[in-house]
Fold this sequence. Notes:
The structure is a single chain. With about 200 residues, the protein is an alpha+beta fold. The protein has five helices and ten strands. The protein has helices at about 10-25, 35, 55-60, 105-120, 170-190, and strands spanning about 1-5, 45, 50-55, 70-80, 80-90, 95-100, 125-135, 140-145, 150-155, 170. The mean pLDDT is about 90.
Amino acid sequence: MQLTYPKAPSNGVQTLRPALQAALQTQGFGINRQFANATPGKISLSEAYRGYSLSLEDLNQGKGLKDAKIGDWHYLVFSDGVTIADAQLADVRGHVEFSSLNHGTMAAATVGALKLAEQSPQLQGKTVELRVLFVSAIHLVAIWLHADGEDVLIPIEPTPKELAVTQLYSEAALLALLKPAANQAKQRFDADTSGLLGS
């Protein structure tokens, strides 16, 4: 399996550097130990890849990946070859700005999903573009391996295990699996009169 990446912002890495330096200096509450112990000189970044999202409305209307909205740029942050974070840049009026740094399980889970994909006979010899898909309303995060005529999705943490397990799914299989959860979530949102759900 060969990974390809979209053309990244030319100043993406320069934009991320100061944010990473500042985060390493604070080593504050909630930052994972590997990140807190990382040496600035040993930090490296993956190629940039894009985040995409589908809404509850999209799922309930039977829309699929071709309707996913393009989102932030993602970079995996490594220290000594170990994944320690997922850094994000947002497109703002034609240029990129630092968006967020995720120290949770997502970065390591992304690497785990890519290892799983590499071992899959289904993807042997194929060239795929790395993407990540979010359906925030039902807490789904999935690695999206996009190729002409074929899309493979691998749900990763923090996706709830009862929703989908970490394995390879076709677009149709995963969307069918998500439909009941999307329907339930939509009913909850529609029944909510407080206006607080989803905010």
